[in-house]
Design brief:
Distance between the termini: 48 Å
Strand order of the largest sheet: 1-2
Helix content: 55-70%
Structural class: mainly alpha
Shape: globular
Order of helices and strands: HHHHHHHHEHHEHHHHHHHHHHEEH
Radius of gyration: 27 Å
Largest sheet: 2 strands, antiparallel
């Protein structure tokens, strides 16, 4: 097996590990499968139940910035290990509280927060690893862990319905052990692999690019010095692969040979002419600060690529995401960031309201439609809709990740068009929720909500990487995920207020609503209006991005002239 094959297989194994880890990180979205019964046993109102669910969302999104900084500086693996323990420590006390039949709401909010934080840490590490290991197919590579994250609720709901039907206690125990086990196992196979080769494949030069095909002399002293420096790498990058040794030896061998200055293309200036002298002087001036690969690449192209990456000049992924590095205070001063922040807040808040409350939707419609339905059947119906949501989210994440690569590389369009699709899908979900009274048709609400949510989160990390740079992706993504903290609190608490206003507390202390659709109708009126606002902001972003990119392109052309 060649070295390239070994490295390719190692990347595949790492991607599988990232996908398995992500499968354990999206369990906050299975909350609706056990929340109604949990609330009934602990005598919680809809608002208190929503607070516990919101705490999980808060853990997932509020700590995105420090988690991102941690992943960017220490590498992905430590974050995975910490995340594994937080997931187990979060779900197990909820399992104990259900068995005991009582518990403090603040305490349950805290442990729910831990489940979200654990998922956030492990998931950020999985996405960062996938983005670094497959630089030329980032949208597709990150789509798999993103899709697995969306499929997480379906995975656990399916196992729960098969092995523990109608038993929230055992289901919570499954979440405690299952999330810890999957994440802990994935830790041992998750690695950031070094670039394959220090040599770059370069297509024909395009107008506006410095011709980079000239070979220049490299002295053995320079080569030895550069070999000693090694290749810069990301934090946490694996350094014990066969390739690392091979690259070092290859560099040292190459440094012992002197390559005569020559040109691959025909030189219009004969040797000794003024033009040839100017070319030779320019080449000599560019030697400082270049490594062995500069015999095949110009300085301008090297500055826009990670060491060892194959340059794909036509790819937006390899151009802007490596050339731009906007983070920290500079990110907060950027108009495009606030545009993206607004879209994320509006659309994610809409999706999270249904994700956290689909169980209440199911309960309200079924009890109004058939008041003789038993609790076990109701639990299975709730798990069914959680599964539909999860499958929809999985499909949306996968389609938007792969589809966005198609948009960029084939259609030469912006990935942000995927967010327009997400806005349209969310609008369909809200219209269905406002009109469906037959619980057998409620799958349209959960299906469209999951699909829209998947489209949103499947493409957003790639948009953030291309807009603000890949090297600060984790921390920038952390800033971006602060917006769902705000919007989900607003939409979910509003839903809880509407639902409680139509609920009646029985003699046993259990709160229930028998008004069917009217239990939550007003909440979906508000989210439908928010969908329209999200669509308008998304179209504004597309217009603004196009205007900005054209201005950047014009500035480059003027600078080159």
């Amino acid at each position: 097996m060649t070295l390239a094959d070994q490295l390719y297989n190692a990347r595949i194994v790492s991607s599988v590990a990232a996908t398995i880890i992500s499968l354990a990180c999206g369990t906050n979205y299975v909350y609706s499968a056990w929340a109604p019964q949990f609330a009934d046993k602990l005598l919680l109102s809809a608002t208190e139940s929503n607070l516990i669910g919101l705490a999980g969302n808060l853990g997932m999104y509020s700590m995105g910035v420090p988690v991102g900084l941690f992943v960017d500086s220490k590498g992905p693996r430590p974050a995975v290990m910490v995340g594994a323990f937080l997931l187990g420590l979060g779900y197990f006390p909820l399992h104990q509280a259900y068995d005991a039949g009582h518990g403090s709401v603040p305490w349950m909010c805290f442990v729910s927060y831990l489940t979200g934080l654990g998922g956030c840490m492990a998931f950020a590490a999985a996405v960062k690893t996938s983005a670094l290991n497959w630089p030329h197919h980032r949208g597709t590579a990150t789509a798999f862990p993103l899709a697995a994250f969306g499929l997480s609720a379906f995975f656990f709901a399916l196992i729960g319905s098969i092995f523990f039907p109608g038993s929230p206690s055992k289901f919570l125990m499954l979440l405690a052990y299952g999330t810890f086990g999957l994440t802990f196992a994935g830790f041992f196979f998750l690695r950031v692999l070094p670039p394959h080769s220090p040599y770059h494949a370069v297509p024909d030069a395009e107008p506006g690019l410095v011709d980079s095909r000239e070979l220049h002399r490299t002295t053995s002293e320079e080569g030895k010095a550069r070999a000693g420096r090694g290749h810069p790498s990301e934090p946490g990058m694996s350094s014990n692969t066969p390739e690392t040794t091979n690259n070092t030896n290859m560099t040292q061998d190459a440094s012992e040979q002197e390559v005569e200055a020559t040109s691959i293309r025909d030189d219009p200036n004969p040797k000794g002419s003024p033009g040839a002298v100017e070319n030779e002087e320019a080449a000599s001036g560019n030697r400082d600060g270049a490594d062995e690969t500069s015999s095949l690449l110009s300085q301008s192209t090297l500055s826009s690529s990670l060491p060892g990456e194959v340059l794909v000049q036509s790819s937006v992924d390899m151009d802007r995401s490596h050339r731009v590095d906007i983070r920290g205070i500079n990110l907060l001063k950027n108009l495009e960031f606030w545009q993206m922040f607004s879209i994320m807040g509006i659309l994610s808040g809409i999706g999270l309201m249904t994700i956290n409350n689909i169980g209440n939707d199911v309960t309200a419609l079924w009890k109004h439609y058939d008041d003789s339905i038993d609790d076990k059947t109701l639990v299975l119906r709730q798990q069914l809709h959680v599964s539909i949501l999860s499958i929809g989210s999985f499909s949306g994440r996968l389609l938007s990740g792969v589809g966005s690569d198609f948009l960029v590389k084939v259609m030469h369009a912006s990935r942000v068009w995927c967010l327009v699709v997400a806005s349209g899908i969310f609008s369909l979900a809200q219209i269905c929720a406002l009109n469906i009274t037959n619980p057998h048709l409620l799958g349209f609400v959960s299906g469209f909500s999951g699909l829209g949510y998947g489209f949103l989160f499947g493409v957003f990390p790639s948009i953030v990487a291309e807009s603000f740079g890949i090297h600060g992706l984790s921390q920038n993504w952390g800033f971006m995920t602060l917006s769902p903290v705000i919007s989900s609190n607003i939409f979910n608490l509003f839903y809880g207020t509407v639902f409680d206003a139509h609920s009646v507390v029985g003699k046993d202390g259990v709160s229930s609503c028998a008004d069917g659709l009217m239990c939550y109708w007003a909440a979906y009126v508000v989210t439908l209006g928010a969908c329209g606002l999200g669509l308008v902001v998304t179209l504004w972003v597309i217009w603004h991005q196009r205007k900005t990119r054209l201005a950047e392109s014009a500035g480059k052309n003027r600078a080159q002239e």
